[in-house]
Amino acid sequence: MKKILSLVCLLSLIFSITMLASCNSASTSSKQDAQVETTTVEETTAEIVTQTTSDGATTIVTDLPTTTAVRTTVNTKVYGTTNVVRQTYATTTTKAKTVSPIYTSVQSGTYTSSRLLILSTGTTGATIYYTTDGKTPTTSSAKYTSAITISKDTTIKAIGIKSGYTSSAVITISIIIKIPVQLPGNITASGSTALQPLLQAATPLFKSKYASTFSGSVTINGGGSGTGLSDVMSGAVDIGNSDVTPAQAGKPGDGLLDHKVRVVGVGLAVSDNVYASLKNISSNDLTAIYNGTKTNWNQIAGWTGGSLPIQVYYRKSGSGTRTLFETYGSFVKLSDAQIATMVNFTKKESSGDLETAIKNNPNTTGAIGYETLPYCKDLKLLSLDGVTCNYANIYTGDYNIWGYEHMYTKGTPNVTVQTFIDFITSADMAKTITDSGYGSMSSMKVSR
Question: The whole model's pTM is what?
Fold first, then answer.
């Protein structure tokens, strides 16, 4: 609007000047009116302009402010004369000011304690408005008057507003508060010796990760799956570790909460002198060995050596490994009293004991025993019906002697015990689990 008014004034002034020039010109007909023609209109940088008429008779001086943003130059010609008048007029364009950006004392991120959020702007007199519901702030939103305490996950949007100014850009701050939970008390567990190495390896890693929140002790005892189930039922321990379910172990499971953490395979471990003459065994021959029908290796299909008595190592009653083997391997379930009558059978209390017995078996006999894979790193394993015992074959179900590793609790565990169980299945333990000889449940393509 200012620009239009300036041009109207300009044209009025030019008309007056050209009329004066027309009256002074001898070549102008007394009957001819002066006419104004606008020939050029341009906008450029403001400056001080001095122009004269073409006959040098009149000097027109216009002093323009050098800070003016725009100028308009109009050239006019008086018909019937040679006079040309050029005049420059200025129009001032004022750029609107903008509220300076909002500054914050806290950046977006994750924090382990409450944060004190301070908002500010460099524009004096500006008011800051903010929201915490994800909506764009307006003058109807909460007005910032003092520091804001952030004690939970919060997303804040803020804007600076001042009359006569363009509002600042809206800023967004996303703050996540993860205050570490204190883990009181101690952790106790007993049971499966197959799972025991993993939990013992996990203990120092768990203590390191939760050093600021856990100062208690972690005790991991063996005793076998049956012992673990009995202990957790009686309240003697926080966690009962087992390779099998209470039903498979013949134990009551009322009130027990099952936490499946890993998969474990059971291999057919043999002494070196057996492996030198046999790499594979059939299910029928395996059953015959464990029911006592075959007592010499030269009775086994595929054997290439001479006569060699079979030495059978087995686990005590209540062992989860024994239950898995008898259920999915030999299909022979004898009582300890029945097995005790077989002269070539020797009972071992734990997975570690059985591993040592096979490695140190005298050459006068050829040893065989069922063993969980975490204990088989230094042992020779026979294939079963042509299928190698490894996790690739376990995942597909081609190798059938395997089970889940269970960590049972009596009802919902307290926060300390639950955190320990969660840690066992976390990414922090992935490499340790693989290196320790356990399988991943997420890789299983079959279930039971």
Answer: 0.65
